[in-house]
Each structure stands twice: as structure tokens, then as C-alpha cells.
């Protein structure tokens, strides 16, 4: 068996650039993005909400729309 040859002394990427890239990659992982707050109650927003609502407030809004749709024909 032959031993592996040691890596060359001249790296492809300079060490200072490599260190900055590693620190930038770790900084992104270390600080996760804080979820947005619900505009109604202040809880964490639902990931599917485009209005800035949590899942409870979003569900209440959908339920209210359904009730309004059911009441409109009765008023005519």
C-alpha cells in the first residue's frame, strides 16, 4: 500500500477568504429568522398566511366568511 501524498502547500483558495466564507455560513445558521407576528393577536404567523395572521385568526376569518356567505341568500 502506498501512503497518500500530503496536500500541496499552496491552497486553491486563500485562507482568509476561506475563513470569512466559513464564518458567514455559520452566522446564517446560528441566527434563525424570527417568525412574523400576527397582526390581530401577536402570536407567530402561520406559514401559509399572506395576510400576517396566525393559524387561529386565519381560521376565524375563514369561518366568518362562510357565515356571511350563508346569510346573504336569507336576506333577499
List keywords for this structure.
2 helices; 0% strand
List segments where confidence is low: pLDDT < 50 over at least 5 consecutive residues. none
How many β-strand stretches? 0
Termini separation comes to 92 Å
Helix tally equals 2
Could you spell the SSE succession in H and E letters? HH
Give the overall shape, derived from the CA principal axes: rod-shaped
Category from helices, strands and their pairing = mainly alpha
Q: For the report, how would you describe the main beta sheet?
A: none
Helix content: 40-55%
- The Cα radius of gyration reads 28 Å
What would the average pLDDT be, to the nearest integer? 80
* Range of strand content: under 5%
Describe this structure in words.
With 76 residues, the chain is an all-alpha fold. The chain has a domain at 36-76. It has helices at residues 15-30, 55-75. The chain is rod-shaped, with a radius of gyration of 28 Å. The relative contact order is 0.08.
What does this entry show, briefly?
The chain is 49% helix and 0% strand. It is mostly helical and 76 residues long.
Task: Indicate the topology.
Elements: H1 15-30, H2 55-75
Amino acid at each position: 500500500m502506498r501512503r497518500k501524498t500530503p496536500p500541496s502547500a499552496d491552497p486553491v483558495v486563500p485562507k482568509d477568504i476561506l475563513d470569512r466564507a466559513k464564518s458567514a455560513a455559520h452566522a446564517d445558521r446560528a441566527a434563525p429568522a424570527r417568525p412574523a407576528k400576527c397582526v390581530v393577536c401577536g402570536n407567530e404567523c402561520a406559514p401559509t398566511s399572506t395576510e400576517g395572521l396566525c393559524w387561529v385568526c386565519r381560521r376565524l376569518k375563514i369561518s366568518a366568511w362562510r357565515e356571511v356567505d350563508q346569510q346573504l341568500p336569507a336576506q333577499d
